[in-house]
Amino acid sequence: SKSSMRTTFIFLLGVLVVAPSAMAELGSSVLPGGLSKSEDDAANLRAAEFAISALNAGHAKRAGLGVAPGTLTLVTVKEVSSQVVAGMNYHLLMTVRDANGNMRDVAATVWSRPWLEDKNDASDPAWQLTDAHLVASHGSEA
């Protein structure tokens, strides 16, 4: 009907007017789907601790880190970028220590969907390690 078409048109016009000003309010550092430096220390630490937990649960072998399960500890989180997706991706650069005291730099990506936490569904978890690999550390560069 004409009434519903007019309502839809007014709504879309409103979105076109409001969305750019809302994005301007958020600042130029926010780009939907783009990477930005993550300033949320609590969320960054939670993502890093989850990554270490997942690596210790057996993902380290699949990631080619060459360490026994359960032997990694987090030393420091060097850098975190976040990306808004269907949830949040945390792209982490961390220094970890293995059971022998060797320090390694590991890059990991953790996907967080906090609205799933209450469901506690192992087949569709709220937190997932989607990537992890060794990064050449600054101390080992010649």
Q: How is the secondary structure organized here?
A:
Elements: H1 2-26, E1 35-37, H2 41-62, E2 73-85, E3 87-97, E4 103-112, E5 127-135
Explain what the structure shows.
Residues 17-28 have low confidence and may be disordered. The chain is of the alpha+beta class and 142 residues long. It is elongated, with a radius of gyration of 20 Å. 18% of the residues are buried. The protein has a 5-stranded antiparallel β-sheet. The chain contains 2 helices and 5 strands. The longest helix has 25 residues, at 2-26. The protein has helices spanning 2-26, 41-62; strands at 35-37, 73-85, 87-97, 103-112, 127-135. The termini are far apart.
In N-to-C order, the SSE pattern is: HEHEEEE
Q: Percent of residues in helical segments?
A: 25-40%
Distance between the termini: 72 Å
Mean pLDDT over the full residue set: 81
How many alpha or pi helices? 2
State the low-pLDDT regions, or none: 17-28
- Tell me the number of strands: 5
How are the strands of the largest sheet arranged? Answer: 1-2-3-4-5
Beta-strand percent range: 25-35%
Features:
142 residues; alpha+beta; 2 helices; 5 strands; 32% strand
Task: Please sum up the structure shown.
By secondary structure, the chain is of the alpha+beta class. 33% of the residues lie in helices and 32% in strands.
